[in-house]
Each structure stands twice: as structure tokens, then as C-alpha cells.
Amino acid sequence: MIQKMTKFDKDVLELYVKYRETELFHLNEPDVGVFIAESPNVIGRALRAGYEVLSILMEEAYPKEENQEQTEDVLSLVPEEVPIYTLPLDELEKEIKGFSMTRGMLAIFRRKPMQTLEEICEGKRRIVVLENVMNPTNVGAIFRNAAALHMDAVVLTKGSADPLYKRAARVSMGTVFQIPWTVISQNTVDMDALHALKYKTVAMALTEDSIDLTDPKLKEEERLAILMGTESAGLQRETVTKSDYRVKIPMREGVDSLNVAAASAVACWELGKED
What global pTM score does this model have? Predict the structure, then answer.
């Protein structure tokens, strides 16, 4: 249901401008909150994944020729009763910082209830576990790598960035809506829970007893949880100590680490592929 506007109405469109993303997360507590998605690609993947859309906000002159087909495809997925607000570009750019990054379209979605660790891991052979990875760009890139390179799910500690933050979802190219994920209610990896679910844990850490990522015995494990830590300090010491394996990526002499997102791509490819 397209509703054409000439001026930005902050009362009608308050969810797009009034709240920070963290506030949107908690907006309807104890019920689930909402999030903002941007760009036709990300919005389309959220719709196809079954997220409930509450409204769409888009540039009046949309769709543009270069992505007209994609935009029309997205709009065809929006239920008829959902408002689709349109505004001139200058109004949108005046009221919404960084609107140029959205490729002309924003949407408000209702979050889904969070699944438990046990529910997410059921039937999953390979999972990625993020311990306090706080940069949304890195979280988004890791999700994209995990989805593309044969991982079955992603688990995050509560200290990690929200995968549904606009930047994380954008960097992931919408794959945050394609791969199952959940957040555990603590800042450290729940090693006991992972072991109870029959996972062998693989800490990506440079220690004296680290084995190479290419070690054949890793591939032989039926279920693996690949643990990756925060951008600055890596995994917490207790997490590394309790892991079944400490693993390093073989590198040239003089280089001992990669950005966590880059490291995730290498680890997911090596441990996810089936020979």
C-alpha cells in the first residue's frame, strides 16, 4: 500500500529516526523488538526468511533503472496491508543520515524469538562460535563467510555485535537471514554446553600446542565448533584452555595473525569442505 509523502513526518516515521538500534532491540520488551534493514537485497532476503515487515520507506523516484527488477521483486513480497512510504530524495537525505548507503530503501521488521543453543545446533555438523566480536562489519563478514563456506549455524556470546544491526546485515549481503544463529546469555563461550551437544571445540588461537588448520584429524571429527574471539585480544584464556584443539592458520614467517573476518573465511573453507 503505497503512501506518497512530500514532507518527512516524524510521527509516522519515528521508528526510522527516533531510536538507536540498541533501543529498537528493546522497544517492545518483554516481547521481541524491531530492527531496520536497508537496501533491496537485504530487505528481500529478510522477507523470504519469514521476518514480519511493518513498513517500507523508499525514495519517491525509485526504482531506478539499474535495480528496478530487484526492487519490484521485493515490493511484490510485501503484504498488501503494509504501508510503503515514499518521499523525495532531498527530504530523506535531510532527515536520515547516510541515506545514500541504503540504495534507496529502508524497512522496519519485527524480530523473531531467539532460539536456544540446543535448537540451533540440532542436526548441525559445523558451527562458528563468536566470543565478543564487537565490530558489526566483522560480524557481517563472518556470517557471509559461514553461509558461503559450508557452516551450518553461528552462535554469538552476548558481548558480540547484533547480526541484525544495519551495518552487519548489509556487510553480510543479507546472509544473516539465511544461516541459523542465536545468542547465548553470557560473555564467554559455554564450553560445557557445546561438549554436551557432542561438539569438539576448535579454538583459533596461537599457542605453543596449536596444530595446523590442515591437520587431518580435524576433518575426521563428526561435529566441530570453530571458536573465534574479539578483534583485539582474541579468545579468552579459559576458552582456549578448555578447547579440545588449539588451531593456527599456517602463515609466512613474520606474520602471525589475520583479521577475524579473514581468518573465519580460511577456517570455514578448510573445516567445512568435504573431501
Answer: 0.90
